[in-house]
Each structure stands twice: as C-alpha cells, then as structure tokens.
Amino acid sequence: MQNLSRRFSTVPIHKLLPQQLHQHQPQPTRFFIPFSEFQQKRKLLEHKLISDLDGCANLSQVKEVHAHLLRHGLSQCCYVLTKLVRMLTKLGVPLDAYQRLVFLQVKYPNPFLWTAMIRGYTVQGPISEALNFYTCMRSAGTGPVSFTFSALFKACGDVLDVNLGRQIHAQTILVGGFAADLYVGNTMIDMYVKCGFLDCGRKVFDEMPDRDVVSWTELIVAYTKIGDMGSARELFEGLPVKDMVAWTAMVTGYAQNARPRDALDCFERMQGAGVGTDEITLVGLISACAQLGASKYANWVRDIAEKSGFGPTENVLVGSALIDMYSKCGSLDEAYKVFQGMKERNVFSYSSMILGFAMHGRANAAIELFHEMLTTEIRPNRVTFIGVLTACSHAGMVDQGRQLFATMEKYYNVVPSADHYTCMVDLLGRAGRLEEALDLVETMPIAAHGGVWGALLGACRIHGNPDIAQIAANHLFELEPDSIGNYVMLSNIYASAERWADVSRVRKMMKEKGLKKNPAYSWVETKKGVIHEFCAGETNHPEYAEIKKALDDLLNRLQAHGYQPNLNSAAYDLGIEDRKRILMSHSEKLALAYALLSTDAGSTIKIMKNIRICEDCHVFMCGASQVAGREIVVRDNMRFHHFSNGKCSCGNFW
DNA sequence: GTAGGGTTAG
C-alpha cells in the first residue's frame, strides 16, 4: 500500500501540471570542489539569498534576487524558492504573474514549496486553485505539512465554506497524524466557529491531545460572540495560564454583551494577576466605561490609558474609543479635545466625532467636520454616512440629507444599506413627510429591517399619525414579534389620538404575548461620583420626602412660568388628576429633583435614562433649566438633550 | 502559520 504521508515526490512535476512553461535542468555539480565545501558554500549562499529576500519591498527587487539565484544554479532550490513565493504573497504580487512561473520550473517541489503556493492562493484566491494545488501535491505523492492544513482551514474560514472545511478535516485524519497537530487543531477550531459551527469547534477542542492558550481563547471568543458569557467564563476559569489576549477576550466579551460592570471587575482581576495592558485591552475597557456613562469611570479609564503608555494623543485606536466614550458620557467638549489633540486620525476618529456631534444635536458641527475630513485623504465609510445623515435628520435638514444620500454611492462607493435607509426614513419622517417616508420604505431596493419601520413608527408618534403607524407596526410585529417597544409606541400613538378601543386592542396583544413593559429608570451621578438610580413611581428612596418637596417646589415655579402638564404623555384611560400624578412620578423628574438637592449650584446636571424621554419631561426639563438656572444634560436610550435657558439642543426633534 | 480590537441608525 502506498504510504500516504510520504513527504517527497517521486513523480516529476511536469507530468502533473501540463501547463508547464519552461523546464530548467538543474545545473551540473562542479566536481572539482570537495563536496562538503560545496555544500557549505551553497548553504551560505542560500542564507544570503533569504536575507536579501527579506529586505525586498517590491517585485523588481525580488526579481533581482531571483536572477541572482538562477545565475548560481539554484533554480531547483526549494528552500530559497519557498521564501521567494512567501515574500511575493506578502507583497501582494498576483501568483499567476510570477510565482506560478517560478514554481513550474521546479522539477521536484518539496512540501514547503507546494504549501507556499497553496497559501498564496488561499490569501489571494481563488480558493479552488489552492485546492487544485493540494490535489496535485497529493497526486505527486508529496505529503502535506501542518502548515498546509492551517492555510486551507484559514481560507475556508474566510469564505465561510464549512463543507470544504469538513472535507479538509477528513483529509487531516486520512493523511495521518495531522488531526492531532496543535496548529492544525487551532485553525480548525477557528474555521468551524467562523462558519458558525461552534459545537464542531468545541468537539475538535475536546478531542485535541495538546491545547494551548490559543485554542482556549478561540473558543472563549466564540462563546462571547454568541452572547454565552456563562460558557465563556467557565472555559476561561479552567484555562491554566491566562495571557493578556485571553484576559482581553473576557473584558471585551463583557463589554460587547452589555455587562460593563463585569468588564471592569474582570479588568481589575487581570491587573491583580499582574498581566499587562495594551491598546486592545483598553478599547474593550473604554467601551465598557462608555456604557456606564459616568464621568468617574471616564476619567479613571483615561488615566489608565495614559499610564499604560497608550494615550489618545499617540494612539489612534485609544483616541477614537475615548472620543466615543466621552460623547456617550455627555462630555462632548472633552471628546472634541481628544480629537483635536490626536497626532494621527483615521476614519474611525472622524466618524466617532461626527457621531458624537450628531448625538448631541450639533448638526452643523457634524457636517462641517465631515467636509473637513473630505479635504484629507481619509474617505468616508458607511458609518461616517450614518453620522452625517443622523445629524441632518435631527436638525431637520432634509435637502442636505438627501443630497448626501445621493452622493454616497456615486462619489464614495458606499452602497446605501438598510441602516442608511433608516436614517432617510427618519429624516423625512421627523420633518413630517410621512407619506414620502412610507413611499421610500416601500420602494427601497433592499429589504427593510426593523430599524426602517421603527423609524417610520417613531415619526408617526411625533406627528400623530395612527394610520401609517399601524402599517409600520404590522411589519414590526412580523419582524420583531417580541420587541415590547413597538407595542408600547403604537399604543401611545392611539392614546394620543384618544382611540381607546385601539389602545386596548394593542394592550391585549401584548398580554397575549406575555410581554411586559420595561420599567423606566434614570440615574444621576452626585459630586462624589456615587450613582443614584430612580425607578418611575418609586417612593422608597431614603430621601424621598425631600425629593418630593423639591419636585413640588419646582413644579410650582414652572407653573408660574406657564408650564402645563402634557397629558398625552400619560397614555392611560384615567382621570386628569391621576394622569398628572403619573407624570410627576417619571424617573427623570425624580432624578432631576435629587440632583438639584445634591449637586453644586452652577454645575451641569447629567441624567441618564434607559428609555426615551417623554414629551412632558422634555418640556419640564426645558423650563427647569431656566427657572433653576442650570445646564441639564439628559441621555436617553437614543441621544443627548442639552437643556439650557429654557431650550433644548435637539430643537424639539427627537 | 493559529487567539483579543474602535465608530452603526428606530
């Protein structure tokens, strides 16, 4: 029986690859030099050629080395040629242009040279050609090396072809020994999890005779990506030696799964374990702090970044993450300072800053920055456009938004996605052009997702259009049957129109589905950095009596300035007094009253909310900023409102 | 040759 794992070919290559172009004979050996001396000289030459190749920066330099190699009769030297092929792959030289010709001149390629070609095609494509080379190599009787399989698995992972991956998996078993190889196993795990077959990856992991921290980390990350932090944690705790990458995977995993406190705890454990911190760890950590939204954590994490030597001035990754964090913490000025201080900026820095401006209602600043970016060589991407379109929509700049939307594909090669259509529907809808918005959704060239219909539903709330709202809601109930917000929104729209029968119909649907409203929460940070949480209707705060009194005082002063409760915001079929009482128990009003009691006069009050601010609270905050003479910043689940002197930065568009 | 990474709209 043929030995399948035999490493070297016995069949000349020209019999296998018929498209062979040249055939160079090996140079005759110069017999007058003693063999050992000849070998030594040749070794030195090979080393020299390899180091020359290492220093090459383009194809013509490689060609020079190649000519040098041919002059010395090394056209058959697989060792140097392998390096040459790898170098050209690294430089991005198309395989068919040069490497293939070099390869075809070699009569008996060794497994490494074959593999370099296979890897070349896995990087540049087509993957079918990589497989073709693999098949030829096997037919030549040449056994693969572990790197052959890792290259192939990587390619399958990149093109998400699990069926091909499985075939190669079978080969690793058939050829013998390779399924047990550490690197092969690791790339196999990676391939399965990338293709979405986590269980298969786990099986490979469980059956591996040797594992290293890479194998563990791959799986941990896979669990964090599907949101299974329990399994990720379990694996992580079992990992004998945790390195920086593994710790970072956990910190980032928590951050990405909306568990910022756990991310911070994990980071503290990491520091306790004496593991270092790099820019990637910081990015995860900064994202966790952004979610907490408190200046205390923002300052803390910035300090860590500076002390670890990854300050925002020097490091574009950390800088961009900090811009986003400060924007989300309500400190737009601080975000802009970071942006201005950065030595290097990229599309992430610009997009984050543009989104920051948009989030805070500074539409003109966002658009100006966009134009500033266009004067650099940085090109906008899909997220940049989300930023400018959002800015336009929040400022009611319909024509400008339309114009930008029209240019994105034409000039910047960014194909509008459903997310961009969401912005456009939002833009038209907020401006009151509900029919146009509906028309856009119905005629858009790609499928509308929940976001698009949600934008339309939101616009119907602002402009009180229950009929279009019902159309949008019907689509949303199909697309997101369990999303409570859509039912609440539709019900409120009907309530505002006093269509109580429709209200109870929607309520009934919610009840049948077993859906419950999310409780509304607000947070304020006191001057000591302590965060207080308020739930709507809650009366058990230790200082409730003072809070209630402060709120009543404020209400009286506001009423003297003409404030009238907006009863539509309490969408219940109840009496007027009950509805007024409900309005006064909204969590952001409690938080505001507490902030007035517990923060310094003259300081900005920052309130965070888990759901959208209601119209009554919005009017209330406007008035409060005036009568109390305070700046108030409210972050709801969508964006920021800056209240100052009786006005809000959102211009009542939200 | 294998593992961790930033901005996303209702």
UniProtKB/TrEMBL annotation:
InterPro entries: DYW_dom (IPR032867), E_motif (IPR046848), PPR_At4g14850-like_plant (IPR046960), PPR_rpt (IPR002885), TPR-like_helical_dom_sf (IPR011990). One of its GO terms (biological process) is RNA modification. PPR repeats lie at residues 110-144, 181-215, 243-277, 315-345, 346-380. The keyword Ribosomal protein does not apply. Residues 562-654 form the DYW domain. It comes from Prunus avium. Belongs to the PPR family. PCMP-H subfamily. Keywords: Repeat. One of its GO terms (molecular function) is RNA binding. This is Pentatricopeptide repeat-containing protein At5g44230. Pfam families: DYW_deaminase, E_motif, PPR, PPR_2. PANTHER family: DYW DOMAIN-CONTAINING PROTEIN, PENTATRICOPEPTIDE REPEAT-CONTAINING PROTEIN.
